[in-house]
Write the structure tokens for this entry.
Amino acid sequence: MPRYPGVSTSVMRRLPRYYRFLGEFMRTGVERISSREFAEIIGLTASQIRQDLSHFGGFGQQGYGYNVSSLHAEIGHILGLDQKQPIILIGAGNLGMAILNYMNFQSMGFELIGIFDRDPRVLGRIAQNQPILHSDGLSEFCRQHRPAAAILCIPRSAAVEIAPILVERGVRAFWNFSHYDLSLDFRDKMVSVENVHLGDSLMTLSFRLNNMLEDISDPVS
Amino acid sequence: MPRYPGVSTSVMRRLPRYYRFLGEFMRTGVERISSREFAEIIGLTASQIRQDLSHFGGFGQQGYGYNVSSLHAEIGHILGLDQKQPIILIGAGNLGMAILNYMNFQSMGFELIGIFDRDPRVLGRIAQNQPILHSDGLSEFCRQHRPAAAILCIPRSAAVEIAPILVERGVRAFWNFSHYDLSLDFRDKMVSVENVHLGDSLMTLSFRLNNMLEDISDPVS
């Protein structure tokens, strides 16, 4: 049994958002908050928040609301952010380097233990205190260091080739930036995939912008 | 009235995915596909696909299925990908540069018309055929060139400061990588915001990995 069975994808995806906002409340000195106030700020309904949190035990107190710092810590724990799952990054190009510079893995449940690429121009460079290693050594590295997760910042063709090898070597989670829906390959396996399709997000923005501009340019209808 | 009123967020977010897969079918020489086959590959149900597309008129033919290239073109049109909405990028650090190198704006409904930063080390450099300009000139640039959209690759504090100025200058869409939910500021305005919270995605992966590992490490339950 998973630790939290029956949690829907939508509930799961709202947890990081709750966590972020609670962190923000802490930074601005808010010590407790009612589900109604929380809902107002985050753009949900109070009952949705209560219902979401009820999957994990529920944390508020009638008439008091939520203690901000303890709810923040609880959700962090639920998300596994207090873990240090070993993670590797494959593909130290622009995107890979941006992710290395941009993300604080330690505060998000991971510990970066290796960076891999094939490009001789980047091999040996140091990023996040790690030398960039040649991908040829990847399989042996996994055997020795047992990464639980991998960040794929490589093209589609490379991802298709490398992912099954990593799964065979024990990798159980992919943060996938390649333009390829890895999740479909692994849907029957115990492998989690977060596909990040930045293009989908930009296309959604295009839809919303054009759909709205239609509104502006057509005042008659 | 928007061009496509009553389209839910979920439907809207599935469109880019349909578009991607259809593009893939085209590349591999698939000329037509039934909603059942399409559903199988994309991991949805046939009736969901049919229902989603019915918001835009419905495109399949009973007994024939979908013509792949014409459905691809239709969805591209619905998404506005055949438009050239002027877009600017603010913040040419690692993340901004990765986005410039990684995204093909022209195939996604946008035309990049300006890049801005404050860092003297990057000013004047060329990226995507554009010189990186000083942010001080941003307001005047908007007055002259009327960007419809902006990509924010700047810290939270800068985003909070710059976004309202851009909105005043006519920007109607933000692709927001700053760690700040801009959408909440503009929820009553005609402004579209796509917040990209990479951290949320990584936290979700952490949850899924740990929730699953619990499963592996606890064979008794």
Q: What stands out?
A: Chain A has a mean pLDDT of 90. Residues 159 and 204 of chain A are 25 Å apart (CA to CA).
